[in-house]
Specification:
Layout (H helix, E strand, L loop, with lengths): L2 H20 L4 H21 L4 H8 L1 H24 L3 H8 L5 E5 L2 E5 L1 H16 L10 H15 L7 H23 L5 H28 L6 H9 L12 H21 L3 H21 L2 H18 L2 H21 L7 H7 L3 H14 L10 H8 L13 H29 L11 H24 L6 H30 L7
Antiparallel strand pairs: 1-2
Helix pairs in contact: 1-2, 1-7, 1-8, 2-6, 2-8, 4-6, 5-9, 6-8, 7-8, 7-18, 8-20, 9-11, 9-12, 11-12, 11-13, 11-19, 13-14, 13-19, 16-17, 16-18, 18-19, 18-20, 19-20
């Protein structure tokens, strides 16, 4: 595919994805969703047409045709299911978040979220055939998300690695923005929220059991890099069904935060002990990942829950004291001060990634090197020698070096608007507040904070579909909470004073 066609198609796909979350329900929105859905796989195929993977598939036409037919049939069947039972769509999207399918072709392998893509495609078709009723939701959050998607796409045009930028847009930003639109239209009632909670906790416990088998047997199912690293470490890291122990740890940390939120707002003793038992199992699973970033993320989420449930002032004081104390212990341990080289070794080269990313940002502070260009720019513009890793692990550093100050403004703006939307009205206290909505909103906000903390050490903020799920849930639940709270206030005000509690 020519550069002009790739660029034009990429811009149209991003604009269509943005329109799908900005336009009201109707034909225009359905057309935008369908356009984005059709374009992003075509763009990926065109970009990779001459790669080893696609060339091998082209030489096995029967295999490729069979795969296409199976995919189309699965999408059509699921679209019919979602149209008949709409509540299954959010359950399918959230339930498939962890599952990647390893695909091998041309001597190369890739782990893709194929099941999730199929469900998103089916959800879009279902929405096109039978558009859901428009629901009032947050105004600024979809605008901020749409603006970032379009900006990121525009900044691929001068990227030093256009192909990487295109893949970022088509594999992640466009389909996950569609997922955001599908989930935002869902009516999140008590039953659906309960189903989601039981599903994610049940899946996480299953993943922990798989990881425990790996830990006891000291053998992993996949990822040769982790298998080799376990041979040289005194500890054994597990990854369960995930490719990376840190991604497994991230998932468990987020589910732990959600489960803790349920524990803090649960009403019955039986449910309390059941959730507490599940949390214990998840803790054991998280410990087996040896993922420091995941532990930090979990603590950040738990701190947010403590602030919401009790006092943000005391929570802030404890966090500051613990952070300062921990930093002093790490810096001064062994009687030595802070050693940048030692820090870089302990973090597997991430110290140099941070300093290198800052140097790249200083060279092009306004617009950066272009979307998806970090690895290429790091390898070609910095005298780093043979670095152990060249992929950025810190989200702000990635955004700053690739997109400059322009991208940073949109990135910070999106996060600020998301936090404001998720937390609006959540700090107020009163007897008439619906417990299930409060617990769900607290879980979403705390999980989002935990995710942000993890992306400071492992990046992947815009590449993780969980980000878009949390944004959609936060926007939808915020509106539902305001509506229910307003009706509660109106009901109390209409009650005669003599009958009020």
């Amino acid at each position: 595919m020519s550069g002009f066609l790739s660029g034009a198609g990429l811009l149209i796909a991003a604009a269509a994805a943005a329109a799908s979350i900005l336009l009201p329900a109707g034909r225009a929105r359905s057309a935008a969703m369908l356009t984005a859905l059709v374009l992003f796989p075509i763009l990926i195929l065109g970009d990779q047409w001459h790669s080893h993977r696609i060339v091998e598939l082209r030489h096995h036409e029967a295999k490729a045709a069979a795969g296409i037919v199976i995919g189309v049939v699965a999408v059509l069947a699921l679209a019919w299911v979602f149209r008949r039972w709409p509540k299954l769509l959010p359950l399918a999207i959230i339930g498939l978040l962890p599952f990647r399918i390893p695909l091998e072709s041309g001597g190369e392998s890739a782990n893709l979220l194929v099941p999730l893509y199929v469900v998103i495609a089916a959800g879009v078709l279902s929405a096109v055939v039978s558009p859901p009723p428009g629901r009032k939701t947050s105004v600024w959050l979809p605008r901020a998300l749409a603006a970032f998607v379009v900006l990121y796409t525009l900044q691929t045009f001068y990227s030093e690695d256009f192909s990487k930028g295109l893949q970022e847009v088509c594999f992640f930003l466009v389909p996950f923005t569609l997922a955001y639109g599908l989930l935002r239209d869902v009516e999140w009632d008590r039953r659906l929220l309960t189903w989601v909670f039981l599903m994610i906790v049940g899946e996480a416990i299953l993943f922990v059991l798989i990881g425990s088998i790996e830990y006891v047997s000291e053998s992993l199912f996949w990822n040769e890099a982790v298998i080799r690293s376990n041979e040289f470490h005194t500890y054994f890291r597990v990854n369960s069904v995930f490719w990376d122990p840190n991604i497994f740890g991230r998932y468990l940390a987020l589910v732990l935060v959600v489960a803790t939120a349920a524990l803090l707002w649960v009403k019955t003793r039986r449910d309390f002990w059941l959730i507490a038992g599940a949390i214990l199992v998840l803790w054991l699973g998280l410990a087996q990942t040896f993922s420091q970033s995941s532990f930090v993320a979990m603590l950040a989420g738990l701190a947010m829950l403590a602030a919401l449930r009790w006092s943000w002032r005391w929570t802030l004081a404890v966090v500051v004291i613990a952070t300062v104390g921990g930093a002093l212990v790490v810096i001064m341990i062994g009687g030595k001060g802070f050693d940048l080289n030692r820090f870089n070794v302990d973090t597997s080269g991430r110290g140099h990634l941070i300093s290198g990313g800052a140097e790249l940002f200083s060279e092009r502070p306004l617009w950066g090197y272009g979307s998806g260009s970090f690895q290429h720019a790091y390898e070609n513009h910095l005298r780093t020698g043979k670095a152990p890793v060249t992929i950025s692990h810190t989200e702000p550093i990635t955004v700053a070096s690739e997109q400059g100050l322009i991208g940073l403004v949109f990135y910070v703006g999106l996060i600020a608007i998301a936090l404001w939307t998720m937390g609006a009205g959540l700090w107020a206290r009163g007897p008439d507040r619906p417990t299930i909505t409060v617990a769900a909103r607290a879980a979403v906000l705390a999980s989002f904070v935990a995710l942000l903390a993890h992306t400071m050490a492992y990046a992947g903020f815009f590449q993780d579909p969980i980000t878009y799920v949390l944004l959609a849930l936060g926007a939808s639940l915020a509106v539902s909470h305001r509506r229910i709270s307003a009706s509660s206030v109106a009901r109390v005000q209409s009650t005669p004073r003599s009958l009020r509690p």
